[in-house]
């Protein structure tokens, strides 16, 4: 699946189907009303039906079921990054603590740590509270290092964070318990012969597509109007809008124009197409990330990782990671392997209708190198290859807040975008913060200061993401 015509910058109409989207969810092509309701003045129009859009709608309607909320999705429900990721829910950026502390101060680094850990906890709590059928599993995840120098640097961060915990106990919130393994103990823990060090901690795996679709269903049950296969083409302020209950914004779609008091961009990698001034800053950089689902090698049946786990290969330089589907789940034993950045021309593109064949080859065959040819055995078959459009910022933090650049003096254009490929550990909490800001006028104190949208217009941007090391197209 793939191909077809596309409007530059906007979601491609015919993306490669992801592993999770087989079969499609019952609400994939849902339209609450047959026609686009253009006569209604909406309280909110949300553009995008991924985890951000779904969470914003659910949280708004939970606070006030009387709200009139319209959601526009260019393709099928949860068809973008939220339905295309690697299936992991992990607070995996703990080793950014040192660089965040150096760049933004210790308090900001601790705030991020609290935020990420709470987001992961909130994801688990949401699944359990609502009985979401998304193959959610508690696992021990592992950050694996194979190069001594990289492992030494990781240990230095661990020591620095533990020193802060001794000096400021509890300052980062509940301290996530992480265990350090070295040498032979590390190799035995993950069964990787080249491992020199491993850090393990609690995390989760899931079917992200089914999670987001269930979140959308809960919104629909509360009155959300979802219009799939409806592409938003332009967001513009209405002239002469005078506040009160009058519409302040119009959203032009390929099926008509709707009006609203507030618009929420939950558009992540596609945001630049709808926001010319933001696009001109170059702050948001979209890219295509790829994954392959592969059958493990012939000798892997009793390997420790086949018990169901998630792993980040932190020093390979390709952003590599993988998870294994549990034996009692669909696709039992499939290894979902993502990364391959060193061979990827993945930035400055929103085309997920095609795949980079060099990355496909890398992802399908790297397992043999990672585990060792003897441990791996004969290669298994490739089950499915897919990609998704992710979105990066120079400082690695998302953009959360109200935009005042598109129409100075005109309020009501909001966004939570730029998840840096880490949305399952950031987006739910960002949505909570955005809803708090939209409904009370104040940002919650727990929202890290570096997440604020205003920094886009600050020319003294902190560069931490390493984007310049990626090959671009």
Automatic annotation (TrEMBL):
It comes from the Eukaryota. InterPro entries: FAD-dep_OxRdtase, FAD/NAD-bd_sf. Residues 43-437 form the FAD dependent oxidoreductase domain. This is FAD dependent oxidoreductase domain-containing protein. It comes from Apiospora hydei. Transmembrane segments: none annotated. Signal peptide: none annotated. Pfam families: DAO.
């Amino acid at each position: 699946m793939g191909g077809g015509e596309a409007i530059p910058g906007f979601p491609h109409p015919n993306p490669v189907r992801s592993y999770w989207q087989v079969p499609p969810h019952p609400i994939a092509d849902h339209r609450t009303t047959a026609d686009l309701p253009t006569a209604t003045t909406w309280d909110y129009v949300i553009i995008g039906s991924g985890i951000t859009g779904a969470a914003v709608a659910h949280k708004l309607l939970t606070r006030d079921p009387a709200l009139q909320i319209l959601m526009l999705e260019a393709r099928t429900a949860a068809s973008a990054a939220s339905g295309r990721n690697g299936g992991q829910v992990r607070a995996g950026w703990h080793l950014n603590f040192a660089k965040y502390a150096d760049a933004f101060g210790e308090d900001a680094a601790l705030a991020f740590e609290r935020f990420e850990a709470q987001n992961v906890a909130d994801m688990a709590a949401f699944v359990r509270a609502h009985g979401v059928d998304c193959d959610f599993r508690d696992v021990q995840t592992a950050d694996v290092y194979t190069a001594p120098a990289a492992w030494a640097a990781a240990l230095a961060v661990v020591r620095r964070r533990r020193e802060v915990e001794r000096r400021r106990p509890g300052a980062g919130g509940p301290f996530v318990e992480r265990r350090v393994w070295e040498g032979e103990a590390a190799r035995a823990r993950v069964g990787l012969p080249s491992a020199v060090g491993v850090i393990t901690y609690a995390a989760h795996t899931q079917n992200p597509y089914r999670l987001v679709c269930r979140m959308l269903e809960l919104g629909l049950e509360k009155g959300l109007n979802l219009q799939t296969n409806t592409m938003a083409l332009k967001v513009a302020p209405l002239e002469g809008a005078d506040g009160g209950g009058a519409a302040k914004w119009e959203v032009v779609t390929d099926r008509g124009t709707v009006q609203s008091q507030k618009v929420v961009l939950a558009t992540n990698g596609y945001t630049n197409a709808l926001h010319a001034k933001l696009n001109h800053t170059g702050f948001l950089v979209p890219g295509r990330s790829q994954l392959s689902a592969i059958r493990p090698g012939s000798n892997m049946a009793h390997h420790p990782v086949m018990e169901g786990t998630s792993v980040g290969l932190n020093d390979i330089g390709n952003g590599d990671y993988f998870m294994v589907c549990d034996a009692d789940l669909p696709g039992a034993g499939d290894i979902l392997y993502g990364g391959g950045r060193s061979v990827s021309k993945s930035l400055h593109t929103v085309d997920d209708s095609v795949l980079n064949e060099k990355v496909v080859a890398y992802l399908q065959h790297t397992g043999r190198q990672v585990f060792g040819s003897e441990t791996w055995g004969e290669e298994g078959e490739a089950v499915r290859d897919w990609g998704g459009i992710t979105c990066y910022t120079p400082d690695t933090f998302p953009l959360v807040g109200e935009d005042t650049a598109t129409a100075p003096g005109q309020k009501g254009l909001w966004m939570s975008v730029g998840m840096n490929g880490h949305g399952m550990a950031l987006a739910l909490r960002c949505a909570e913060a955005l809803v708090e800001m939209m409904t009370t006028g104040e940002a919650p104190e727990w929202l890290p200061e570096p997440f604020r949208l205003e920094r886009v217009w600050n020319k003294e941007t902190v560069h931490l993401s390493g984007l310049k090391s990626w090959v671009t197209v």
